[in-house]
Amino acid sequence: MSTPCFRVTVALLFTLVVSSFAASTPCLGAATAIAVDPQYDTAHVYVAPDDFDRFVTSLISTFGGKTTKQGVFTVTPTPSQTMSQLVLMPVGSISVFGFKTPIPYPFGIERTGYLVTDLDRAVQTARASGADIVVSPFPDPIGRDAIVEWPGGVHMQLYWHTTAPAYDALESVPENRVYVSEDRAKAFVKSFIAFSGGKVASDEPQAPGTEVGLDQTTVHTIRLDSRFGKVTVFATNGQLPFPYGREIFGYEVKDLGATLERAKAAGVVILVPEHEVGKRHEAMVQFPGGYVAEIHSVSAS
Question: E strands within 151-278?
């Protein structure tokens, strides 16, 4: 039989362990509260100033939507000047940057920006979830930002606005298409799920490789869902044909053929023609200025 002193010691030790774990591990509720909605997830696209207007026009011509007012701002913590404009489309949002000065490191390596309810809390949760804080929080003209790196080398910006934005809900939520090595896929998924409060929607170790240009083999494909939106993870050996791995988002449209016709009329190059992968019809395109995107439609049957 244990003594009262021993029972008190065990109880105290248990309390300390639980408290320590709770302090270092973000809970699901806390993670979910950080996210806003997928219409606030943006692809970060850097183009030359000469291509800026042509790129924005091609997006609207292809997908529809609207833009915010274009301006020239300092959006980095060190001196710089960039043209900046937000493109709000029914299939996703894009932040366009056309730097007039050299781009300070490490800006340009982040692929997306995620709006959060509290930047300091988001950074703390990201760090506790296994992310590296590449650029610590800094002010911008309308809020604050930070850049984080997830396991596998995936960079994202987290941002917060002083005045909360209000954008229309999306008609379809785009896929944030993430390519990681086979060795780091598990770590990325664990880390991002812990941060986002999301879930694994599907995990196919041998999904059709056609989705990443590998017609004769399979690819490990993991699809994640959270309030931030969709993330599709491709775990590969890095031996990919162009342009796979260069795209940031995959956009879902109702009629792929009609969308591609509008795209071509707007000066978009079709890199990979429409093809079938399971219930999806997919294509890879390149917009003026160099932005590569996947576009797909999903069969109802």
Answer: 154-161, 175-181, 199-208, 218-226, 229-236, 249-252, 269-277
pLDDT on residue 274: 97
pLDDT digits (tens, 9 = 90+) for 241-260: 999 999 999 999 999 999 99
Q: Is 138 left (phi over 0), alpha (psi -120 to 50) or beta?
A: beta
31-161 matches 175-298 in fold: yes
pLDDT, averaged across the chain: 91
Q: Looking at residue 300, what is its pLDDT?
A: 76
Question: pLDDT of 27-80, one tens digit each?
Answer: 445 555 899 999 999 999 999 999 999 999 999 999 999 999 999 999 999 999
CATH level 3 topology of 31-161: 2,3-Dihydroxybiphenyl 1,2-Dioxygenase; domain 1 (3.10.180)
CA separation for the pair 92, 103 (Å, rounded): 25
Q: Is the pLDDT of residue 119 over 90?
A: yes
Closest CA to 127 of 34, 38, 39, 25: 25
Determine the topology of domain 175-298 in CATH: 2,3-Dihydroxybiphenyl 1,2-Dioxygenase; domain 1 (3.10.180)
Q: How many CB atoms lie within 10 A of CB 261?
A: 12
Q: Please state the domain extents for the chain.
A: 31-161, 175-298
Write the single-letter amino acid at 29. G
Chain position carrying tokens 């026009």: 57
**What kind and span of H or E run contains 19?**
helix 4-24
Q: Do residues 162 and 143 lie in contact, with contact meaning Cβ atoms separated by under 8 Å?
A: yes
